[in-house]
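User: two proteins, same treatment. go.

Assistant:
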Amino acid sequence: MLPLEWFSSPTGAMAVAAAIFLIVASRYLLMAGTAWVVCYVWQRPLRRLRKIQKRWPAPAQVRSEIAHSLTTSAIFAAIIAGILWFDRHVHPLLYHDVARYGRAWFWLSIPAMMVVHDTWFYWIHRLMHHPRLFPYVHAVHHASRTPTPWAAFSFHPLEALLEFGIVPIALVVLPLHPTALLLFATWSMLWNVAGHLGFEFFPRGFARSAAGRWLNTPTHHDLHHRYGRYNFSLYFNFWDRIMGTNHPRYAEIFDEVAPPARKGAPAPEDAQQ
C-alpha cells in the first residue's frame, strides 16, 4: 500500500511512475536478457536445441525490439501509476487485506486473470490484424518475423495501450490483491519471453498430448510471426481451437523442431522458413 503523500504533488507522482518504470524495465531486461544469453549466446554454438526458424535475427532488429519494449515499459508504468493514484484518491480498485477474500481466492485469482487475459488477448489480437488497423497498430510487433526474447514488449504505443487494457477491466470485474496482480504480471512477462524465444523447449509430441491441446508453445507463436494468419492465442489453445485459427501443420512443425522426448534420441533438423 502506497502512502498518500507519494501522490500529493506532481513531482511525487512522477517519482512513483519513474520507480515503477525501473521495476517493469528491469524485469523485462532480466528475463529477456537471460533468455537471450542462454539461447543465442551459449545455445548457438552448442546447438542442444533446434531453432524454430533457420534465419537468425539481424542486430538492427534486436535494437528495435529493445527500444520499443522500453517505450512499452514506460507506457505500462504510467498506467500503473494512474491506477494506483485512482485506487488511493478516487475509488478503491484493489483490496489490500488478503483475509478479506481468503488465501484460496488470492491464489485462484492468478489463473482467473490468465483466463480473462487470454480471452482479451485473442480477440484484441484478431482485431489488430484487421487490414485497416494492422499497419498503424500491430506492424511494429510483426517487424520481428523471426522473433527473439527482446520482442516480448516490442509494441507500437497504441498496441501497448490495448495490451494493457485488460488490467483496468479485470480490476472492475475481479477482486484483485496487488501482490496477486504482480505475480500474474511476472508470469505473463515470463510466458511472453518464452513465446518469442525462437527455440522450442517442450518435448517432441507435446503439441499432440492432452496438455498440449490446452497450452501453447514457442512454436505456436513463432508460426504466428511467420505467417500472421494463424495462432492468435497467448497462454491457452482453446480459442484457436474453437475458432479454427490454429495453423493446420502446427503439430507437425512442432515435432520437426522440438527436442527429443527422451535423452539420446536423435535431434530433429531445423524447420524450413
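Protein 2:
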Amino acid sequence: MRYLICLILLCIPSLGLAEFNLFQSGSQAEQISPNQQRLENAYLYMLGSQGEARDSFKTLEALQAAAAGGHAGAQTVLGMLYKQGRFVKGDGVQAQYWLEKGAAQGNSVAQYHLGVLLAEKATSNEDLLGSFVLWQQAKKGGHTLAERALKELDYRLTDEEKERAEELWAQVQAERARSQVAEGAQGSMPGQGQEEVEEDVGKISLQRVTAQWIRNRAAGNLFVIQGEAINKYDEPRAHLEAVGRLIGAQGQVLVEMSAFCGNPIKIDELAETDYAEILPIMQNVMGQQEVNRQVEPGGLLPFTIVFKDVPPNVTQYSVKGRSVPLTP
C-alpha cells in the first residue's frame, strides 16, 4: 500500500498558476457572475497583475467569498490550499469539505484531488474504492493526472471491487441529496416593511431568524442573518450549515452565502472585525470547541451569515438549513 501511495503522490503537483487559471472565464468582455469575478480577482491578487499588488490576504478573502457563494472552481482551489497549507493553515477537514463541494458539482480537478486525499488515508483496498470512482469521474472530465493514477490503481482492485465501488458511490451521492433541506425561512430586507415568514421544512429546522444591517468600520455596510438551527432528525447529524440567499424583485437569486453553525459572532465584533477575518469564522466546519462535529437529536446551534457588497436590487432574503450524516 505504501508503494502505491508513493506512486500516486508522484502524480500530484502543488497548486500552480496554470491549474488555478483553469477556473477563469476566458474572456474579459463576457458577462460573468459575481462569484466568478471574485475568483478572477483572487487570481489577480495571487499573481500581482493588472496593477494589483500580490496580496495573499486579498487572495484568500476573494476565494472564501466565491466558495461560500457556491462557485465550484473556488471551492476546489480553496480545498487545495487547505490541503497544501498555502495562504491558510493546513487543515485536512476543511480541505476535504471544500473538495467534496467542488467534486459534487462535477469539477474534475476537485474529483482528482479528493481522490488523492482519500488515497492518502487508505489502509486497505476497500478504502481505495472511493478514489477509484472519483478518478474515473475526473478522467471522464479530461483530467490527465487522474488517468495516470487509475493505471497505478487498476491492477490492485478486482472487477468485483470496482463494481462495488460504483454501487457504494451511488449510495453516498443519494444520501447527500437526501440530506439537503429545503428553504427554512424567508423575509424582506430590513426597511422594506414586510414581516419575516418562518417555515419548518425538512429536518434541520430554523428558529429566531433575524436580519439587520451592520456598519463595519472597514467594509462598510454588512447584511447579517442570524438564528438557530435545530437537529430534528431522529439520529445525530454533523456539519449543520445555514445557507442564505439574497433575492431580487423577480425572484432571482443574486447572491448566496453559507455559514457553519456553532460559530456565534457578536454584533460589536461584526462592526469592528475585518471581513477577511469573519469569513474563516463562518467556514469553521466543526464549530467552536467542535460543537458541530456531532449534534444529537434536538440539539441547537447558533449561526451567523454575513454578506458584503450587497447588490442594490435585493428585495428579499431566504435562509435554509442542511447537514450531513455522521461518518461511520
